[in-house]
Amino acid sequence: MCFTALRDYELLMMFQQEQRRPPVLARVGLSLAGPRRGHLRRAWLADLAGDPVSGLVPSPWWRRALAVGYLLAGLRLRLHDTVGVLWVPVDWVLGAGSRTGAAIAAATGTMAVGIDATGGLDRLLGIGVAACTTTAASLSGLTRWLRRVRGIELAAQVPPARRARRSSAYGCGLAIVGQDQLRREVLHERDVAAGANIGLIGLVARHALDTGFHAVVEGIVGAGRYGAMFTDLVAGHHSRRFLYYLDIGFDETVRRHATRPLSAEVSAEQMAGWTPRP
User: Residue 5: what pLDDT?
Assistant: First the structure.
C-alpha cells in the first residue's frame, strides 16, 4: 500500500475531513451495501484515513483505488441481497431428500411426457429413455453440488448435537465438543486406550464450561476408555450436568451411519469393535 508522510496538523485535518465526507465512490458503495452493514462504514473510513498517529495516510491514487473497490464491493453485496431471495425456494427443495427426489422425478417425468407427445411411444422408448436417464443423473449431481455450495445438509446427515444447536435458545453460547472432530481431524488418531484425544476432549469441554459456555460432548465413547475423563469432568463442574446415550440397536446404528458421508471411511465391522454387543 502506498502512503504519504504528512505533518501532524495536516494529518488531523485530513482524518477529520475523511470521517465527515468520504469520496463519492465510497459513499455510493456504502449506500449500496445497505444499512445492515453499518460496520463497513467504520472499516472503510479507517482504511481511507490511514494511521494518523504514525503519520501514514494513503496517497491520492491509492484512495481512489480503495473507493473503486468499495463501490464494487457495495454492488456485489446489493446483488447478493437481491438474488438471495430467489434462493429461498431452491434451498427449501434442497433441504430434504424427499423434496429433491420429487423435483427430479417431476422434471424427468415432464420431459418424458414431452417426448411422448411430440414423437410418440416409439421415440420415448428409443432415445427418450436414455435422455431421461441422463437428465435425472445430471440433476442429481447438480443438487449435490448445490448443497455443498449453499452449505445445506440433509437432516439425516446432521448429528444430534448440531441439531441441538439449531433448536437451542443458547445459540452462540453452546459449545459442541465432537469426539470425531478432535480425534480424527485434529489429532488424526485411532480410537485406542489412553489416546491423546481423551484428555483433549476433557480439556476443551472444561475450558468451554469455565468460560461460561454450555458444553455438549458427543461421540461414540466407551466407558472403558472415556469413563474416567467424564467422571472428572462431571465432578469438576458444580452447575447442572447431564449424561445421555442413544438407546438404539446396533443394526439401526449401522443404518443411520450409512446415510452419512463418513460411511465411506468407517465400515460396519469397525463400528462393531466400538459398540458393546449383548
Answer: 45
